[in-house]
Structures are given as C-alpha cells and as structure tokens.
Amino acid sequence: MRLRNIPGAQEAIRESEFVIENAQEKKGNWSSVFGNTNPIRIEVGMGKGKFLMELAGKNPEVNYIGIERYSSVLLRALQKMEEEQRSNLKFLCIDAKELEDVFSPGEVDKIYLNFSDPWPKDRHAKRRLPSREFLARFDKILKKDGRIEFKTDNRGLFDFAVEELEPAGWKAEKITYDLHHDAEMAEGNIMTEYEEKFSALGNPICKYIIYR
Ligand code: SAM
Question: Of 23, 107, 182, 185, whose CA is between 20 and 30 Å from 16?
C-alpha cells in the first residue's frame, strides 16, 4: 500500500482541514475537535480510507479518526474527502506506536484493524498490529468495555492474532474464518479496499471481535 515519494503529499497533509496536526495537543479533548461528545472510533492502518468514509457516512452520530503513517497513502483519503466531505471523520498521519500520546485512557470507544500488514518474519512480530505489544497499547486508550474488530484474509496472521489474545489478557467475543458466509457477522459489513481485492480472488475473510 506504500505509495512512495508523491510530490507535495506532506504539504497537502499539513494544509488539509481534515488532518489533525499536533494531535498530542488534543489528547483528552477530542470532543472539542468534533464539537460534540459522540463516541470516537478509530481505524489503525487506514490506508486510502474507503472503509471509514462509508462508515462515517452511515453513522453521523459517531466520530471517526483514521490513523495512517504514510503521507503518500493518506493523500488518497484526503482526495476522497475533498469530493465527499464528512464532518465526523478526521485523519492523523502518525505511527500507531504513538497512540498513547494522542488519546487519554478510555477516550476511544472502538478500534478497527483491517488487513494489517502481516510482517511475516518472526523477528518482526512486534510490528504486527494485532500483536500483544500493540494490544497493550490499545488497552491504554480503549474504554473499559470497548471492542477491537480485526479483519484479514491472511490466515497465518489471523492465527497469530488469535494466539496473542490470552497472553495479552483479551477474550474473543466472536470469531469467523469466512466472514462473507457468516450471516450474523456479515450483517452491515463494510468492505475495505483490501477486502474487495482479496475476496474477489476467492480468499475467505477472517474476523474477530475482542474485549477484555
Ligand atoms: N485498512 C486498509 C484496507 O483494509 O484496505 C489498508 C490495509 S494496508 C495492507 C495496511 C495499512 O496500514 C498501510 O497503509 C500501512 O501504511 C498502514 N500501517 C501499517 N502499520 C502502521 C502503523 N504502525 N501505524 C500506522 N499505520 C500503519
């Protein structure tokens, strides 16, 4: 998904009204950014933003924040927002390792992880977003009864993610290994860019919803 060296990407992000710069200053005060006290849900590793654009359009009573570390990728989401604006959607161009600097404990109502990078080498396991290291970070910002929802077509990554739950102190509320043929879990499903691409190839999509 990394689109390298798009000229002007960083400048466009700096100037965009949809991107929150110096997000650390908003910690504990995100309601002021949105002008309401609606719940805040975030997608970590948002990519080009299709999922959040649709979700934010369907749920105006919820605030959404997309987290994407690459400006060249985030630029695509900004272009979509220029065409079709959403007052309940903002973007942050940061690494997910910085989430604790940006949100205070319990400030986030739900976290979405969609088609997270698999980092296949064992020595890179800590970089996987559903790893115990990242679950510990998410634990700090997610409200007490909050949920994380994770989808991927990568069975190896999904099996790893499920194995991480117990040592990290999380429990599965729901798990499916074929989301699109699971009537209950597929209800209201919004496809991400990667989900469209890989399900079109016939890959089953795995999903869990977890809590602690
Ligand atoms: N969620 C989108 C989807 O399902 O179509 C994009 C999936 S893409 C494989 C993963 C995205 O996560 C990439 O754009 C990558 O830059 C971003 N990403 C990976 N690790 C990240 C991190 N630690 N912090 C922020 N973004 C990250």
Answer: 107
